Amino acid sequence: MRKIILTVFTFFSLVSAPAISYAEDVKIGVLYPLTGPVAQVGKDAVAAVKTALDIINNSHNIPGMPLAKDAGLKGLGGGKISIVVGDHGGKPDIGVGETEKMLNSDKVHAMFGAYYSSVTGAASQVSERAGIPWVNGESTSPKLTTRGFKYFFRVTPHDGEFTQLMFEFMNDFNKKNSNKLKTLGIIHEDTLWGADSGGTQDKMAKEQGYDVVEKISYKAKTTTLSSEVQRLKAKNPDVLLPSSYTADAYLFLNTAKELDYNPKLLVAQNAGYTDPKFIDTMGSKAEGVITRSPFNTDLAKTIPMIGTVNDLFKTHSGGRDLSDVPARAFTGFMALANAINNAGSTDPEKIRQALVNLDMSSESLIVPYRGIKFGADGQNEKTRGILMQVQNGKYCTVYPFELAACELKYPMPTWSER
């Protein structure tokens, strides 16, 4: 009889026990150039992702930062995020192969990356066919969000929006300075990103009444830019608009110094001009260069979270500070994590729908975007950028004027003055 009673008691105990909630972990594929000419950019982007993972998977006191307080994703019962990191070396075919591996072998629930627009464009086709969400934090070719994809979402401003910022700057400058800026020179490398950037600038210049006196395209892996610089020197445009990755940005400035070409204003489409090694490598040659960016550390005066996140980033980057690309990578990854938390699931379709519905405020970000909300094309509709100028060996925000930490230096110093 005692045995029967115990059995009955055990049965009813099991029936009445509350259901156990199991944490559901998430795996995300992360793709960047970890070798090749922009390896440091890729390494810093991965460090930014690891910073986001630290904040998400552990408990941190960062007022205003979503997902910081709780350890793990509350929407998934405290589930943690892990990453699978791939190196594409700047080559689209390798990016495609890495993506196929992550989807088929590693069984990732979402993809993130990949800096180069050409790699992002090719590799995201794989995830689109597989029905796996891809979130991008820093690729800026406008074409990426004109493909009619359902699973591709971009957090950063694209080149069209950044170029609009450049023209707003030039227009505002002209209002204050008797229309000194009238002629433009455009020079760009010939991959998807460079071609799109140069084409967008040319189109916008004509729409806004500027005279493009030179538009030059060059091979992405060129070893000489002498003839291109000579052409620009001969025409001497009021503003030079370059779109160059790291190696060719260095090559251009070195050649400009050799040939004593002195632009009055150089307003770059970031990339090589915001490479983490740009100022250290170029030294005084970088003085006066202006580049567009969505981020600069001097914004910490108005965005207090930057200092806290930067301190944490340095523990993952070997002591390096946040810069343009890792700040955007961090922001993009946090957007993806927030969507997964909101979805409460690792199901790709539910994550996609959560990205469609995502609406993050500006107060939750370390970049000066107005927020994160995706349009029907997958492009963040609340982006905003800044222009920063190299002054005394540091980037300093000079536009929009209400966010400026330094006064614009115009014209930029000549080679003899640096």
Provide the fold topology:
Blueprint: H1 2-16, E1 26-32, H2 39-57, E2 81-87, H3 92-104, E3 110-113, H4 117-130, E4 134-136, E5 152-154, H5 159-176, E6 183-189, H6 192-207, E7 211-218, H7 226-235, E8 239-243, H8 246-258, E9 265-268, H9 278-282, E10 290-293, H10 305-317, H11 324-343, H12 348-357, E11 360-361, E12 371-372, E13 386-391, E14 394-399
Parallel strand pairs: 1-2, 1-3, 3-4, 4-5, 6-7, 6-8, 8-9, 9-10
Antiparallel strand pairs: 10-13, 11-12, 13-14
Helix pairs in contact: 2-10, 2-11, 3-4, 5-6, 11-12
In brief, what are we looking at here?
This protein is of the alpha/beta class and 418 residues long. Helix content is 40%, strand content 16%. It contains twelve helices and 14 strands.
Can you put this structure into words, describing what you see?
By secondary structure, this protein is an alpha/beta fold. It is 40% helix and 16% strand. It is built from 12 helices and 14 strands. The chain has helices at 2-16, 39-57, 92-104, 117-130, 159-176, 192-207, 226-235, 246-258, 278-282, 305-317, 324-343, 348-357, and strands spanning 26-32, 81-87, 110-113, 134-136, 152-154, 183-189, 211-218, 239-243, 265-268, 290-293, 360-361, 371-372, 386-391, 394-399. The protein has a 7-stranded mixed sheet, sandwiched between helices. A 5-stranded parallel sheet has the order 2-1-3-4-5, sandwiched between helices. Strands 11-12 form a two-stranded antiparallel ribbon. Helix 2 (39-57) packs across helix 10. The protein is globular and about 70 Å long.
What's the β-strand tally?
14
- Proportion of residues in β-strands: 15-25%
The share of residues in helices is 25-40%
Largest sheet: 7 strands, mixed
Kindly, what is the distance between the CA atoms of the first and last residues, rounded to a whole number of angstroms? 98 Å
Physical arrangement of strands within the biggest beta sheet = 7-6-8-9-10-13-14
| Rg, Cα atoms, Å | 24 Å
Oligomeric nature of the chains: single chain
The helix-and-strand class reads alpha/beta
On the 0 to 100 scale, the average pLDDT is 93
Uncertain stretches of 5 or more adjacent residues: 1-20
**Tally of DSSP helical segments:** 12
Strand and helix order: HEHEHEHEEHEHEHEHEHEHHHEEEE
